[in-house]
Design brief:
The chain has 7 helices and 6 strands. The protein is of the alpha/beta class. Strands 3-2-1-4-5-6 form a 6-stranded parallel sheet, with helices on both faces. Helix 1 links the parallel strand 1 and strand 2. The protein is globular and about 50 Å long. The N terminus is likely disordered.
Length: about 200
């Protein structure tokens, strides 16, 4: 018998629900800076979004990587100079940056269950991610966030723009995301499922 495990789960006490920040809508992508995470698509979507909503903020949090598909520091600096994104550096504790955003964005080409999305949901953030294995299971379309095709910055920008068009949407979806995280991704429930599957 096959037992489905909802990733490694998330510690809901370590990632408590955070109040929605006031001010401009802030979209946060937190990931290693590689092309597979959809960094380039995020930047292209941010360029489209900021042309329509100049006050919107698109932020990038994560460490530089050494693999061939890595995004270079020079490239990130160029995007910052253009005024498209803010690079927040890397951190051991993502909670302060997550708390200051309304929407978590992960335009990944493919994942296991992305921990960054689970952490964002636990903190009550709406999620925009891709309709690929691993990512698509974390979002209830239209309730906790939006799913878009991978490698499609236009669709990504459209999804992000829906939060601009409806000022209460991020709050509503964020509340639903926390409830979904509690129901499906609570680390205690996930661990109990694993132990049962192992017959322990």
């Amino acid at each position: 018998r096959i037992t489905l495990i909802n990733g490694s789960g998330v510690d809901l006490e370590q990632f408590p629900s955070a109040p929605q920040p006031t001010g401009p809508l802030t979209y946060l992508l937190m990931a290693r800076l590689t092309r597979e995470k959809g960094i380039v698509e995020f930047v292209e979507a941010a360029r489209i979004l900021k042309a329509l909503y100049p006050e919107s903020r698109c932020q990038l949090l994560g460490s530089f990587d050494s693999n061939p598909a890595a995004i270079s520091r020079n490239q990130v600096t160029a995007w910052e100079r253009e005024g498209i994104i803010q690079y927040l550096g890397r951190t051991e504790d993502v909670r302060p940056q997550l708390a200051m955003a309304q929407v978590m964005v992960l335009p990944s080409y493919g994942e296991g269950t992305p921990r960054s999305v689970l952490e964002a949901m636990a903190m009550g953030k709406a999620v925009v991610t891709t309709r690929v294995s691993g990512c698509k299971e974390t979002v209830i379309e239209g309730q906790t966030g939006f799913l878009v095709p991978a490698k499609d910055p236009v669709a990504l920008a459209e999804a992000m723009g829906r939060f601009q068009a409806d000022p209460t949407l991020a709050q509503r979806m964020g509340t639903a995301a926390r409830i979904y995280a509690e129901a499906k991704y609570d680390v205690n429930k996930v661990n109990a499922t694993i132990l049962r599957a192992l017959g322990l």
